[in-house]
Amino acid sequence: MITELKESEFYKCRGLLNDHGQLEARAIVEGVNPGRVFVDDMESPASGLIWLGNNDGFIFIGNERNDVFNTGLNHFIDTVIAPEANKVGLNWFEGIGNHPQWNTTIEKVFAYRRLGSWNQRVYTLQKDDYKAANKPAFDEKYKVVQISEIFYDKQIKNMDFLHAKMAEYGASAESFFQRGTGYCVVHQNKIVSVCFSGFVVEQFHCVDIETLEEHRGKKLAQLAANAFVENCLNHSFVPYWDCMASNKPSIAVAENIGFKNVFNYIGYEFKFDV
């Protein structure tokens, strides 16, 4: 039987986490970012499923050969996850394994569901690898501004864009200013590019980066990312970049700054049967 843990019980899953797995899983188990955790055993879990608080997917943790957990997954997803996902407008289940051994299990358990997949790449940046010389020049009409408490409350035309981006991670503004860091590129009193800490665990800061479509191609993402990276390195933080392998522009920005690919993983998807 698969049961949901209370947030105060997430600590029971610490031993199930892969030390070299996705930062998001640890951020939720440690209570830094919101999420939900479902396990095979309330007292001594061996396997689990993490639902990211921004509804951006699921992470399988622990023992991938746990028959009790695995045989109950499809029923649990159909009767518990799918109806709740439907309420928030989610039509697809997107799942990944916290370690590579989960891939075979996921492919086997969900084989009948017309399972699709994609490749994901994870990068980190160490101080000695930072390519500061590659920082682009930019038009003076664009300003790089740190996301501070003062800036957060300013009368920017589209401040709701930043508020919505940060809300995806469920942390309050107060929590962000305690743990995270970030920068915006502003043009004519409008945020046109943003780079900030999404998930934060210990010294690792997971990058969330986006440039408005009409301003792409001007290296604004590089500007925001360089400012973010410099701030992280000055505070002994480790920038962490997770993106789809097919997202060539994102990879180009990361590698231009000096990020190194540290591991890759596979994501799987199928449509909910509701």
TrEMBL record:
Keyword Transferase: yes
GO molecular function: acyltransferase activity, transferring groups other than amino-acyl groups
Superkingdom of origin: Bacteria
UniProt signal peptide: none
Pfam families named among the record's database cross-references: GNAT_acetyltran
Domain N-acetyltransferase intervals: 145-274
Keyword field: Transferase
Protein name, entry field: GNAT family N-acetyltransferase
Organism per entry: Bacillus mesophilum
